[in-house]
Predict the 3D structure of the following.
Amino acid sequence: MTFRSLLLLFLCLALLPFIVQSQLTADYYQKSCPKFSDIVKETATKKQQLSPTSAAAALRLFFNDCLVNGCDASILVTSNFYNVAERDADINLSLPGDGFDVVTRAKNALELECPGVVSCADILAATARDLIVIVGGPYYEVLFGRKDGTISTKENTDKEFPLPRMPLSQIISIFSAKGFSVQEMVALTGAHTIGLSHCKEFSDRLFNFSKTSDYDPAYNSEFAKGLRKLCANYTKDPSMSAFNDVITPGKFDNMYYKNLQRKMGLLASDSALVADKRTKPIVDMYAANQTLFFNDFAHAMQKLSVLNVKTGNEGEVRNRCDSFN
Ligand code: HEM
Ligand SMILES: *[C@@H]1O[C@H](CO)[C@@H](O)[C@H](O)[C@H]1NC(C)=O
Ligand SMILES: *[C@@H]1O[C@H](CO)[C@@H](O)[C@H](O)[C@H]1NC(C)=O
Ligand SMILES: *[C@@H]1O[C@H](CO)[C@@H](O)[C@H](O)[C@H]1NC(C)=O
Ligand SMILES: *[C@@H]1O[C@H](CO)[C@@H](O)[C@H](O)[C@H]1NC(C)=O
């Protein structure tokens, strides 16, 4: 063996721990925090009992976090003083307050058990998964070892994030830019089988919709009438909101897709899924077969869970989830 190949071998061996470290693994905390999974599950269970909106709040938080700049818990940070008002307003209005809270509770419990070890990004990923199971959804394996991001990129959020009034093609492009197929996008959006949307997110479909119709004809007329009543005062009371899945609002199932077929999709982006020939066959498939939806949702969530994760030296383990170290 030449000196150079020996040197190379030595370098490889020396770097091995770093290479290994930069991969997510299922048993990442097995030695450093063996109770990690139990503590997260217990915290999630208690929190969901205390406030049944937690599952939806955490799931939405996780999706928002992963889609913008990766699953790095950057959404939890309030450190930028000019961002605080905006996030707090958002918390109050859309009540993902429960999502932030469940992560904080788990983090506090984990810091007592194994200080400085478990990242907020991993806590959010595990919490979202556990809460989905608690409300009846599929279990899927999540890998761990994410580090928390050290950059806040709120400025980019608007461009990278799908909004209900965007044309479906634009929403498809946003997902495809993150590596998701149309079918994966439709499966992920099945998350709207739980949780709430505020009236302002769909009020344009309810009042003065067009010259010929007060409300969007893509709504079932009884459904639209109910929503018009519910949201009548939404400008005065911005907290007014409707269930995303009005039939089984707190249960993770395939009712969302059945609702779409009955013209009971709440957001314009929901209704668009049955109106477009790229997505309608997928909606019909999931409406007919919940097992298929659960399988596809679980796979797509696993994919979402590793989106642009930071590992090794690319991030930190935050002491508090709401601020950088
Ligand atoms: C297709 C593009 C999507 C659009 C345009 C969209 C938009 C929205 C909007 C506007 C709300 C209501 C927010 C509020 O008023 O508080 C909402 C709620 C929600 N979204 Fe989405 N979403 C999309 C996809 C997803 C995906 C992929 C997930 C998760 C994998 C998700 C999970 C949720 C959950 C769980 C809620 C309920 C939140 C709560 O009850 O606090 N959404 N979404
Ligand atoms: C949220 O709203 C409640 C009730 O209106 C208010 O007491 C509270 O101060 C608000 N929180 C923030 C952070 O704005
Ligand atoms: C609808 O339009 C009419 C006429 O333009 C207006 O008087 C009314 O206030 C509008 N209603 C709502 C809910 O915006
Ligand atoms: C809307 O406000 C009016 C007057 O403030 C009140 O009479 C009515 O009950 C409210 N409706 C709903 C659904 O909150
Ligand atoms: C539903 O989908 C599952 C998973 O792909 C498949 O095994 C099953 O045969 C399907 N059931 C029906 C009734 O098509």
DSSP finds 14 helices and two strands in the chain. Residues 17-21 have pLDDT under 50 and may be disordered. The CA atoms of residues 232 and 240 lie 9 Å apart. The domain at 168-303 is CATH 1.10.420.10 (Peroxidase; domain 2).
